[in-house]
Description:
Distance between the termini: 54 Å
Region (Disordered): 79-109
Number of strands: 20
Order of helices and strands: HHEEEEEEEEEEEEEEEEEEHEHE
Amino acid sequence: MLSRTRAQSRWWQxxxxxxxxxxxxxxxxxxxxxxxxxxxxxxxxxxxxxxLTVMHDNYDGYSASISAVHEYADDYEVAEAPASSDxxxxxDGGDGxxxxxxxxxxxxxAAISQSTILTSNGGFTNLGEYDPSxxxxxxxxxxVGSYDSDTGVxxxxxxxxxxxxxxxxxxxxxxxxxxxxxxxxxxGDPPGIYGFGYESQANGNFYDSLQFNEMDIxxxxxxxxxxxxxxxxxxxxxxxxxGYYYAVSTTPDSFLSTGVKEPDGEVVFFDLGGGVTHxxxxxxxxxxxxxxxxxxxxxxxxxxxxxxxxxxxEETTVIGSMDAEHYTEQVYINGEPAASNDCVSNRVITAx
Length: 352
């Protein structure tokens, strides 16, 4: 695994490789335009597209793909990889199936990896995988169009355009299946959560969510994990599992040895009356200061409602809300069972 110093060094190297990639691409495309002016198709746009496609395909083995920088908790120690790798996705690429030869061997393809796809129609139409370095969009290795990130417009090779396109970072296995982040539990009821990762549909193996190292989770269970939106509507880094909120969901392959994680919050379904409801993610102990012994049900509810509606960012105990779109995707596309009130909550608070 990478230490923080090595991670910074690797990030610098990736940036340098990308710069080299762009310089060489520009020179090669420019040279081909001059040298092959007569060999290009009649339409200039098709020629550019043809050259970019050829150069991108031939250069693919050299260019460094920049993976997202994942958030991770300070309480996890990221250890150095041992000198002789057992093959869990370390830098020297040692998991089985690779060649055992000398320095000329190539690094095996990662079992799972992060990529960016373009979607439209509220995420239900997958336009293809987007390469920000070239602007090209591919499906099954074939160029299907290009994307302008400034305008959000996708232009297909046949000239058709799609507007309001969104970029989505996804984790895919070697067969291109989009994977969902799952929690690893002790199989209890309620489940105790150790950490998070991805199960490959291609080979059935499980990988941690921080560095994509293969893990042995035999004897443990996996649980559905739901996304969270913060108070401003942005995606939160945490996940909801069985009605509880876990702030850090990018965890290294050592998480099984760190014990069960304490939840950082809970999900509460507020039924405010008149058809108004809210699936809120509240900080752990958010209403523990309410004196339930000396207050009536109406007074307790009023105190809880005041905490839900607290406008001060410094005082609020509201973390955010369950991501309704991701919940819908999990239920209606991935076949997860629907939750009561369509809210994966730990408890329900109703107006008396």
